[in-house]
Amino acid sequence: MGFDWDLLLKALGFLIAAVAAYFQVRNLNFAARASLKTDLEILKLIDASDPNYQVVKTEVDRRVASLYAPEPPKTRANVGRLALIIVGSLWAFGFAYWTVILVTPTFSWWAVLTGYIALAGLGWIVLGVSGTDIIPKLKNRL
User: Where in the sequence is the domain holding 116, given as residue range(s)?
Assistant: First the structure.
């Protein structure tokens, strides 16, 4: 029984895509800062007596506070974080196994979907381990 090079190359491609997605997510903070810089330049151009000045200033103040606020201290693992880690592990490994089953005899395009869903499980694991609440951060960046 020979080694399945096709499966190895598909797994390598999946891993490279996951690493690229991770680095793209890390650049969200840079994009938020660039957007804030643009808003600050707009604020400089608006006259202080203009009624829109206060609207833009309020938004800029909110975004500055969200980007530069001190991080809350990380606490011990709580039930929510532990649940994210457990469910994320089951989700990631379950869908990763299903992906391998789909590509083992011959490639099935359903493996792309199951592989993507497995990545979501990895995201849940990272959120549970890091202990950060990403939802408020995403709301502030939109």
Answer: 76-142
